[in-house]
Each structure stands twice: as C-alpha cells, then as structure tokens.
Amino acid sequence: MNGMQIWLIFTGFIVFAGISVFLNQKRNKKYRQLEIQAGFGKRNETPVSEEIMASMRAQEREVKSFEDRNAARLDEITWNDLELDALFQSMNRTMTSSGQEMLYFMLHQLIKDQTVLCEREKKIVWFSEQKEKREKIQMQLSFAGKLHRHTAYEVLEVLKTAVPYSCVPHAVMACVFFLTAVGTLVSLFVSQVPVMPFAAALIGSVVWNIGQYYKKKGELDCLAPALRYILRLTFAGEKLLLLLKNEEVWEKEYRALSDAVTRVKKSIKHSWLVLSGQSMSGNPADILLDYFRMILHMDLIQFSRMMKKLKRDMDSILSLYEIIGRVDALIAMTSFRNVLSGIADCSIPEFCDDSDTSRQLFVQNVFHPMMEHPVTNSFTVDHGILVTGSNASGKSTFLKSVALCAIFAQTLHLCPASRYRAPLYSVMTSMALRDHLASNESYYIVETRSLKRIMDEAKKGYPVLVVIDEILRGTNTVERIASSAQILNVLNSYNTMVLAATHDVELADIMAEHYENFHFQEEIVGNEIQFDYRLRSGKAVSRNAIRLLEQLGFDKQVTKNAEQMAEQFEKKKEWDVIE
C-alpha cells in the first residue's frame, strides 16, 4: 500500500466521519423539533425529580430577587392544600432549568396589577399566534437544556459565593517550568552548562506543577457546572435576540437581554481553555493539550481572570437567567392554556376596578383543571358562602376549583371557567392539614395556627379569598360550632371572600345572615350511592350518611336507631340518653 492509497483512505475516513456527525446532528434536530411540536398543548408527563423539587421549594422561600412588588405570594400551606406541585408538573413544558424554576416561581406570585397582567397576556397571545417563531425559540432554548442534579440558580449561587483566587502562583509555576526547560535545553547543547541540576529542577517542576494543578482543580470542580450553564444560557440568549428583534411586545426584554448577553460574553472570552480537555476521548491532540494544562496551568490562570469578571457581572448573569427563564415559562403557560381550553370553556378574567367597593364574586361553569371530564358549577355572591353536604359529594373539589380559578386568573390570565369576575385577590386556604407528629402538635393546634395566619392576613385590609374545608374539625361539636361561628363572623368583617365547607348544619343556620348557603347532595339508588357533584342553593337536608351504613352491611337495628335519634334531636335540639 503506497502513500497515495493511505492518504485516500485517511481522507475517506475523515469525510465519512464528518458526514456521519452532520447527519446525526440533523436527525437529532429533527427529532427534537417533532417532540416540541407534539408536546405543545399537551400535559407534561416527565416528572421533575424530588431532589430538584425540594431545591425549588427552598429557593422560592428564600430568593427575593425576582419578586414582583405588585404581587401576592402564595404561602406554603395554600400551595400544598391545592396540590399545586402536581399542577406545576403537568404544566412544565419548559426547555431549560431556568425556565422550569421561573415557572415554579411565577405560579407562586399572584399579580395584583392589571397592567402587568395585560402585558403578560400580550406575550402569551404572541406565542399562540407566532407558531413558527415559538418553535424556533423552543428549539434554541432546548440547547441550553436542563440540569439533572441541581437547579440552575443553585449552580449560579456557587459561583456568586465563591472566593476568587490569585493567578500569580500559577503563573510563577509556569515560569519556573519554562526556565528549567530552557536551562535543560541549553545544557544539552552547551557543554560548559551542567545537565543534571537543570534536568532535576525540570522534573521537580513538572511533578510539583501537576500536583498543585490537581489540588486546585479539585477545589474548582464545583464551579465548572456554573460556567458551562452560563455558556449555554449565553448561546441561547444570542439566538433569542435574533428571534425577538423588532418585536414590539418583547422590546423591554430585548433591550435587557442584549445588554446582559454583551456583558457576559466579555466575561467568558477564551472559556474554551477552561472547559475543553480531559475528554478521555483518546485524541492525541487532546491528550497533549491536557499535559500542557497540567504543567502550565493555562486553564487555572484563565479561570482566575474569568472568575473575577463573572462575579463582577453577576447581575447580568442573573438577568440572563431570569429573562430566558421567563420566556421559557411563558411558553409553558401558553401550552397549558391550550390544555385548559381543550377540557371545557375558559375565559379571560374580569377584575373589579379599584373604585369598586363591591366584594362580588361571579363564577360561571368553573371546573378543576386536573380533571379530564369535570362537572362545572356556577354561583354569584357578594359575601361569604357555607357549603354543606356529605363526604365525597364534591365540596372539597368545588372549593379547590374556585381557589385555582382565582390563582390562574392572576398567573396564567386564563380561568378554568366560562366567566370569572372578582377583585384582585390574595388567596389563602386551610384544607389538607395533618398532625405534626415531629413537633408533637395535634391536628387542632395545626388547624388553629393555619386559621390564625389567615386572620392576620385579613387584617391587612386588601381583598383576600379565603377557602376553608371543614373548619375546626379537630375539636368537639359544641366548641367547634361556637368557635367557627365567631371566626367566620370576624373574617366576614374584613375585606375577604370566605368559602367554607362544613358538616355542621347548625353553623349554616347561625351564620345565615352573613353567609349564603349552598350544598351538594347524593342519591342512593339500589345498593349504590350516586353523586352528581352539582352545587345547589340552600343547606343540606339529607341524612344519607346513616343510610350508607346500611349499604355497607351494618346491622339494620343500628341504622334504625340512629335515624330515630337524629329525628328526636331535630325536634328537641338535644340528644336522648341511651339507657
């Protein structure tokens, strides 16, 4: 085989490898594009790991950088009561870690400024109408991607809090190596210069430099993910600028993004020296470059310079993180609005003007967004409501539906209802409480703490939607009814709209002057109990709970006696003593 044949084989191999890489990238891009197209308007089925979820919970509580002063924050109890983690997971069609985190954050912030909500609506409508551009944006964002073990904010915080180090010692080590290497070379050609001292110094320099390299490299390994993600965000930001250019609705974000990208690009100049190498690919050039790094500390010297610049430009990096995250989150919101519209009729919310002192809440055909075939309900009230009915009749689902409708009105700017009109609310709930065994607190203590926080919020004077399921269920009947009546009465005196469910029909009578009564009911047909989940005016009057005992096989004498006792109590308003 002559030299020409070897050259042709080598050239052919290079061309084949290049074509393979090109076709593979094209195939991956096509697959990603089809995935983006197929996923839009569908519920997300890829869950976020519990590790990431825990980090986002802590981040949402602690990070104040992105809070909107015109927003009311959903507290942890309300978030958990309404199972908003599950809703977030279903909505999470984001492409990036920053988008995922901003979506989680934005769902906690109830916007109370109609101007801000109108701006959000314009952006969501733009994404709905500009399908081709939206898909291109999603494609570019997908290259920034998601981190699997940490949130992007956590990774950036590591860089923010890192202590810069001096590159001088590493530059000195590189100079010592050069001097000993030059001395060794000179000694090989000049007989008057002894070889051994310079050779020994050279070997010592190499060993020392490599040892110090790995020591410092180990200290800096925690910063590499931050630098990589900054590079990915910067690349995505550059592409985003091209797609948002001359779009009036994005003018503010375009200017801020352009400024952030320009600043960060200067900080990450020559970043390839820091991130390339040690690829374990076996490529001779990479291996040789790795040895140069270990001996000359090129990447450590460059990272020292970059680190100082990055810390100086941390505001620009966080701005890059936030803007890209919000764009990504708004696309996910747009997608989920399509999901909602596919379930039942939805509507843009109507809000009362600041001058309107009425507390009227108008909700038509509201439904729970996590149910595929929901039953809708409607009501209009200008003061609180009490909902009665048996277990599993639909009370809790109804209350959650209304609370989520109010939250979506001030986050997604779309309501899971055919019409919704209300003030701009803060939303607080007391529903799915549990005993705090770890802190040795009973259910009643946990419940009273939950209600106290609502009372404290209501005292601030702004409109609050309060949702309470089974008020004070953790104590005895007499004290429960007395305490519940007083709590509901005080809450009603504030600027609140209280929606409360109770099994205590007596409470509905006591509060009839201040709370409108609604109920859910069921029917027992044959051997089955059936629910229609329809909200009805007035309080519940059926005693199907006793009849259900019979359905489940209890002795007929038990249910007969129970019926008689209940009838006697309703007549005399006191219980007969069992002899």
Task: Quickly count the helices.
Answer: 22
Mean pLDDT: 85
Give me the secondary-structure category.
alpha/beta
Fraction in beta strands: 5-15%
Report the sheet with the most strands, covering strand number, pairing sense and barrel closure.
Answer: 6 strands, mixed
Low-confidence runs of at least 5 consecutive residues: 278-282
The coarse overall form would be elongated
Helix content: 55-70%
Span between N and C termini? 112 Å
What Rg do the Cα atoms give?
33 Å
- Number of DSSP-assigned strands: 14
**Biggest sheet: strand arrangement:** 8-9-10-6-11-14
Describe this structure in words.
The chain is an alpha/beta fold. The protein is 59% helix and 10% strand. The protein has helices at 3-39, 50-62, 76-81, 84-91, 97-107, 114-129, 131-144, 152-161, 168-189, 195-220, 224-244, 251-267, 272-275, 284-296, 298-312, 314-343, 395-409, 443-458, 477-493, 505-510, 544-551, 556-572; strands at residues 71-73, 109-111, 350-351, 361-366, 377-381, 385-388, 419-422, 426-430, 464-469, 496-501, 516-519, 522-525, 528-531, 536-537. A 6-stranded mixed β-sheet has the order 8-9-10-6-11-14, sandwiched between helices. Helix 6 (114-129) crosses helix 16. The longest helix has 37 residues, at 3-39. The radius of gyration is 33 Å and the shape is elongated. The model is unreliable at 278-282 (pLDDT under 50).
Write the layout of secondary structure elements.
Blueprint: H1 3-39, H2 50-62, E1 71-73, H3 76-81, H4 84-91, H5 97-107, E2 109-111, H6 114-129, H7 131-144, H8 152-161, H9 168-189, H10 195-220, H11 224-244, H12 251-267, H13 272-275, H14 284-296, H15 298-312, H16 314-343, E3 350-351, E4 361-366, E5 377-381, E6 385-388, H17 395-409, E7 419-422, E8 426-430, H18 443-458, E9 464-469, H19 477-493, E10 496-501, H20 505-510, E11 516-519, E12 522-525, E13 528-531, E14 536-537, H21 544-551, H22 556-572
Parallel strand pairs: 3-7, 6-10, 6-11, 8-9, 9-10
Antiparallel strand pairs: 1-2, 4-5, 4-7, 11-14, 12-13
Helix pairs in contact: 1-7, 5-16, 6-16, 7-11, 8-11, 8-16, 9-10, 10-14, 11-12, 11-16, 12-16, 21-22
